[in-house]
Design brief:
heterodimer; A: 232 residues; two-stranded antiparallel sheet; 2 strands; 62% helix; B: mainly alpha
Chain lengths: 232, 192
């Protein structure tokens, strides 16, 4: 049984046939003390930044393990998703110290609510990202309006370089961007700023120098157009 | 604009994140009892999901997972919490069964406390029992409120805080302990 230190940087998650999951190479073997567990998890998280091949099925199995109260599964979910969820939370909140608090709350909620996850209703990452976005938006609405900096990167089409993204998800993303493009540059920008940075109508109104009522009309029309374009 | 359009537009803006604090809280409350709104929200979450999946990752600070674990095990002196943590740490079937039994027991205790609080005279002590003392937590929040700090924030924010405290109390009374716990936790950590 390899110890964490033996790990050569490859950490593979294997869905065992029938039931259960096994995270090879760091949580097996003798129980680790809390501090070294946490260190192992952060090592794992660093590895994840280089791309852990965690498939959708693996994540579904892990969440089901969390629902049964399995700590190994919880560690795995954290290692596989904390980069993404922190990215989402940091963008919306802007400030790290707020984002840290909210990310903790996100994982406490995941631990407690994993039993509510229904794989037939949503992909695991969608379910997790929704929890992260909702808690981040709740927090953002509570803090005094921070000045919104320029966010030019929101307006790019980021390339999808996630090796685990499957074909179907890439296709959904391509369609969504095609429909966003159909809104025209300004309205597309508004929709993306609201989604990625949680900008309210008032924030958008200040940024674009238009009345709040106009922004609301733009948003509602843009969203209705998006819905028609996506046809679902 | 028909009502159906309005529900869909509201759901879309809720998911997009463009609603202000008051509207967002109103949608949160309404979605619990309005199936059409709840369904519209889920559909919009799916429509926008590819954007979230595409968001670039950012490494959380080291030690954050450790903090999550200690947050989960914070109230180990409460019997149901201790069992929950035991399940977290050993994930044995037995511990899980104990956790389930203890949680059920704790829910009964919480319900009994709620009934007792509702009928207790107003001068009765309200912070004696461990398991989710809704009245105690709620009163505690107002007692410890930093009035100077709250006098400086906008009326809208103050209303938001009051609403959150009420939601926490309602969730607690309804037995939705995780929600109540999260809301009271947020109230305690509130910064302006």
């Amino acid at each position: 049984m390899p110890s964490p230190e033996d790990n050569d940087g490859q950490c593979s998650l294997v869905a065992a046939p029938g039931a259960g999951i096994e995270l090879r190479s760091f949580v097996d073997g003798p129980r680790l003390e809390r501090s070294s567990e946490a260190a192992a998890v952060s090592r794992h998280a660093r590895r994840e930044s280089r791309g852990v091949p965690t498939s959708r099925q693996d994540l579904v199995a892990a969440l089901q393990g969390v629902a049964r109260g399995e700590r190994q599964a919880f560690e795995l979910v954290y290692a596989a998703t904390s980069l993404k969820l922190y990215g989402i939370v940091v963008r919306i909140l802007g400030r790290r110290e707020l984002a840290d608090e909210v990310l903790q709350e996100v994982y406490v909620r995941i631990w407690r609510r994993a039993g509510d996850f229904d794989p037939s209703a949503a992909s695991p990452i969608t379910w997790l990202a929704t929890i992260a976005r909702n808690l981040a938006l709740d927090e953002a609405r509570r803090k005094t309006a921070a000045s919104i900096e320029d966010h030019p990167e929101a307006l790019q089409h980021p390339s999808s370089d996630d090796p685990s993204a499957d074909h179907e998800r890439n296709e959904d993303l391509r369609r969504l961007h095609a429909c966003l493009d159909g809104l025209g540059q300004e309205r597309r920008e508004i929709v993306l700023l609201a989604y990625h940075y949680g900008m309210t109508r008032e924030d958008i109104s200040n940024r674009f120098g238009r009345p709040v009522a106009t922004v609301k009309t733009w948003l509602r029309r843009s969203l209705a157009q998006l819905k028609d374009c996506l046809g679902q | 604009m028909t009502e159906e359009d309005d529900i869909d537009g509201l759901a879309a803006e809720y998911v997009l994140g463009s609603l202000d604090a008051e509207e967002r809280a109103a949608v949160d409350a309404r979605r619990r009892s309005d199936a059409a709104l709840a369904a519209a929200i889920e559909t919009w979450e799916r429509r926008f999901a590819p954007l979230s999946e595409q968001t670039p990752g950012t490494a959380p600070p080291p030690g954050l997972f450790e903090a999550v674990l200690s947050r989960i095990s914070q109230r180990t002196h409460e019997p149901h919490r201790a069992a929950e943590v035991a399940a977290l740490r050993s994930h044995s079937g037995r511990a899980r069964r104990i956790a389930v039994a203890a949680t059920a027991l704790a829910a009964c205790v919480a319900a009994a406390v709620a009934v007792w609080l509702a009928h207790a005279p107003s001068h009765a002590p309200t912070t004696q029992l461990a398991a989710m003392d809704c009245g105690g937590l709620y009163k505690d929040f107002w007692r410890k409120l930093d009035r100077d700090k709250y006098a400086k924030i906008s009326a809208e924010q103050l209303a938001g805080v009051s609403r959150m405290a009420l939601r926490a109390y309602d969730a607690c009374q309804a037995g939705d302990e995780p929600d109540a716990d999260a809301l009271f936790g947020r109230l305690r950590r509130m910064r302006f």
